[in-house]
Amino acid sequence: MEQLLEQLASGLANGAIYACVALALVMIYVSTDHLNFAQGEMAMFSTYISWQLMNWGLNFWVAFILAVLASFVLGVIIERVILRPLHNAPVLSVVVVFIGLLAICNSMAGAIWSYLIKEFPSPFPKSTFGFAGVIGPHQLGVVVVTLVVLGLLFLFFRYTPLGLAMRAAAQNPQMARLVGVRVDWMLALGWGLAAAIGAVAGIMVAHIVYLDPNMMSGILLYAFAAALVGGIGNPGGAVVGGFIVGVLENMVAYVGNMIEKTTGVYIIGNGEKLTVALIIVIFVLTVKPAGIFGRVVVKRV
Amino acid sequence: MKTSRRTFVAGASAAAVLSGNRVAFAQKKYSDGASDTEIKIGHTNPYSGPASSYGVIGKTIQAYWKSVNEQGGINGRKVNFISLDDGYSPPKTVECIRQLVEQDKVLCTFNTLGTPCNTAIHKYMNQKKVPMLFVATGASKWGDPKNFPWTMGFQPDYHTEGVIYAKHLLANVKNPKIAVLMQNDDFGKDYWNGFKEGLGKDADKVTKHVTYETTDPTVESQVIQLKDSGANAFFVIAIPKFAAQAMRKAGDIGWKPAIYLNNVSSSVASAMKPAGFENVQGVITALYLMDPTDKQFDSHPDMKSWVAWMGKYNAGASLQDASNVFAYSVSALMHETLKKCGDDLTRENLMHQAANHHNFKLPLLLPGITVSTSPTDFYPIQAVQLSRFKGETWELFGDIMHAESS
Amino acid sequence: MPAFPKKWLWVVLILAFGLPLLGPVFPDVISNYRLFLVSTMIIAAIAVLGLNLLTGFNGQISLGHGAFYAVGAYTAAILMDKLNVPYYATLPAAAVVCFVVGYLFGQPALKLEGHYLALATFALALSVPQILKYKWLEDLTGGVQGIVLNKPEVPFDLPLNEDQWLYYYCLVTMVVLFWAANNMLNSRSGRAMMAIRDHYMAADTMGINTARYKTVTFGISAAYTGIAGALSASAIAFVAPDSFNIFLSIKFLIGLVVGGVGSLVGSVVGGIFYVLVDNSAQAISTYIKNDLGLQFDLSAYTIFGLLLIILMYLMPQGIVGGVYILVRRLRRG
Q1: Could you report the per-residue pLDDT of B174-202, keeping only the tens digit for each?
Q2: Nearest chain B Cα distance for residue A63, angstroms
Q3: Residue C257 burial by CB count (10 A; 0-12/13-18/19+): exposed, middle or buried?
Q4: Which residue of C has its CA nearest to B86?
Q5: Among all residues of chain A, which has the CA nearest to that of C295?
Q6: How does residue B87 score in pLDDT terms, banded at 50, 70 and 90?
Q7: Exposed, middle or buried by CB within 10 Å (0-12, 13-18, 19+), for B189?
Q8: For a surface tag, which of A83, A110, B122, C8 has the fewest beta carbons within 10 Å of its beta carbon?
Q9: Rounded CA gap, B370 and B140, in Å?
Q10: Which residues of B touch A7 (CB under 8 A)?
């Protein structure tokens, strides 16, 4: 029973990480219709920026805010410089550009900051409280931060003119242009926001998995799965999807363990938990092709 | 040169070494890759891809040969060191190695990294009769002179190390119930097999054995499972990042077993400190190299000259990274081997010299550990010393343990 | 997509078959190593062709063709290692196994589109190395240790060395497979495949059995890539889970896009690029460091990323498409 609780808690904490990266993926998807394969590496790069700032003596939260702002600017620049000229290129060509971006971010971070893993501080108090042993303070903090980001996004898109303009630009670019929305810049803003959210995710993750140039490579796939399960294009769905994937994965290992314990036969374990979790995710997607919270879009021929 | 049992085994050939070493008028003989002015050495290493953290080893080795060349080279010959990126992918290693051997015509390859990558070229190198020296992997298969006379390992093999931990654990932990976390690949399997062999009939004391993949973001779920098994001893077979995660998580969830940590993750900077010093007190590992963050070696001449060398030739590289110590040390062995070859730079002689080190004092090995090889012993370093973590550093204890691996 | 003039095709073929014969004339240019390198290009070209059949001609995106490559390689390796099957007989076996796997995978894939299919195939590529290490399969697959094999031996006492023979073996396989693909694409079925890509609903209403075509295409595509995998098992003489990581699938995709999506010639260009890009990135990186004396360490991986972005920037349609546009412009101009 204790193990079940611990696995659940650990799954939720991991899920929060996936959710955060998935949110960033969703941001780019809603504004540009692309899945950004370089998202994880960009987030990692942002995390190094905040690490560098802290290394120069800045306070955690100051470094956090500066890194998020810097990432926003970098995101906008990447869109304007690298992706703008490829506006009419086929989807797969854009995917290749993302892969190129991934390679550059990864190797540049390695060249600048080396591949030695670095500890990353946690901003949350290290006190032990009610759930001690089941979920750590940092894990709980990550869950809270993820929900706060989601809430802010919700408010931004619903109540600010800029947020509304961005939604309009994504949903119907021609119409938006006619009513005076600068659609080009909205796309760049979407990239900036995604990069900023990615930075938040990276900074939250780094304490748990340690900071190194490859820290996001394992997480990106989970984030994809999370974004798709929730229904891509739906920030709330992405967050729920993240939690689902995180918990599901741990539960697969847990169930495998229980089977082995009671029957003595090894069927599934840690080696297969990712595979099994993905099979379940894909199965869900074949039943509900638009994701759990996605709406089915009816196409006109 | 001292006479020992090993030289006796080597017999007449050892005498030839002595003369070849000193006598300058010996006839100059060359294989591909060596000439009056140059010695070509090939190398593969992952500089990109999932294992790119090993890239520092390649860079430090390059810096080493640069410094050798600046100081006049080896017996007047400059070392031309060609290092290629194989991305830790065995097919790519085959391609790179064929380029090095057939196109660049290197004299030998040196410190090629990774068990699967070296396995992919093992047969090829031996068919081509090109020395494949001091490979950077601890698998036990590299010291097999009968079947693979052109391949030689370097570090103490993982298998033996596993045996050592098992023996220590059985002798020191009462009523052991053992949990094992293992990286699900070659490297993990080797340790695990050695560990099981060391446990012998007590193999059933392992109450839980779980694995992780290097693509997993964390090993937290695994550690929870291990704690739940009620184990009081914990053997960590993991690379630094995951070892640190595992030991920290164990501390976080209030699990306090006796921890045995594989040598691969013994670096203070990249494993012990990230895990949190409060979580790793009393952890036991086996060492053969000096750790650069270990204060007790601060005044050791080897360590001092290494620090000076790093500042001069490898500036910008981390002084805390144990990989830089490893790279320097293994390069020094290659340097010595080439020096001993004198003017007879044939592949046969190179292999012969590599198999004729007698208690050679290699820089940065722990005091008391030396390099010895013979035509039947292709394991250069076979001794380790156990070490316990205390405060912020390792404390060596007990005797130096020699283990003959099968 | 541009058609490749027939007379040029014959010239290229004759050159390709004559290449090793020129070895004694130019021993430094046409070395065994270079022939081996060309063989790996051929293998990559076949794998990229497999992906092209699915993605380029049928419109189903796959980020996981490395999985089929792995299945093909392991099928061949296990047959050679456990059952002593001769290497040439492993190709059809790998094709059949991969066809079945691909066909079965194509069933759920019918319900998945675009990004969802990308995720599903990505997941496939990620799970295959883990499945190869699965406890109950270890005896067969060698687990993490992989399987060490022998290189194909030269038959009938032909006056060839191992690398020359491997080259012909790969080349003949490629010619047969490309010929078959070309015939298929120019047939009724091929037009149906492309109709599904171009306009799914129209194809459906016109009475094309879209589900059957899509799953069978998946199977054929997997079979092609599986054959490439089986060839690679012979060429490298070693298989291990580490050989088939996710980067393999991504590199096939890069080969496909850079060569030319939906073009047979593009697959060949993609295969060549697949091999050359690493070597050239490395050469450029060393050149910058040694000859230009740049202090900052611009690694080969960075150059690789830059190359991809620049290529896509200059030729968003891939090399074949780009060259075609260029030639047309020159003719007009």
Answers
A1: 888 999 999 988 888 889 999 999 998 88
A2: 20
A3: buried
A4: C278
A5: A111
A6: confident
A7: buried
A8: C8
A9: 19
A10: 221, 224-225
